[in-house]
Amino acid sequence: MTECTYSKQVARPILGEVKLSLPRGEWRLWMVKVARGKSPLAKARRWALAALAYGVWQERNASIFRGEAKPPKGVVKRIMAYSSHAIGGQLDLGEDGVD
């Protein structure tokens, strides 16, 4: 994911919402590390990582199988919309993201 320009353009704003930036090395290990814990921030990070992977995968399939291509900003907007709907405003990260 960190090697693809399109994915990076989608990931940066999504990860920024949960106080993360793209890793410079092995992203799979990084995901496990940053999403650990039971704090609201950790829960939001898990949701953001899952929504990001799903959103990019969904867009990839639309591009390959239907010949549709959305700009990265459109994908970010869609991910943000279904993320905030799914969370339902129940997640309050507070100042530092801990309970």
Protein model, in words:
The chain has 4 helices and no strands. With 99 residues, the protein is mainly alpha-helical. The C terminus is likely disordered. The chain is globular and about 40 Å long. The longest helix is centred in the middle third of the chain and has 27 residues.
**Could you state the order of secondary-structure elements as H and E?**
HHHH
> What is the alpha-carbon Rg in Å?
14 Å
Strand element count: 0
Count the helices. How many? 4
The portion of residues assigned to helices is 55-70%
Largest sheet: none
Q: How does the overall form come out from the CA principal axes?
A: globular
- Report how far the terminal alpha carbons are from each other: 31 Å
**Poorly predicted ranges (pLDDT <50, ≥5 residues)?**
90-99
Structural class: mainly alpha
Give the integer mean of the pLDDT values: 82
The proportion of strand residues reads under 5%
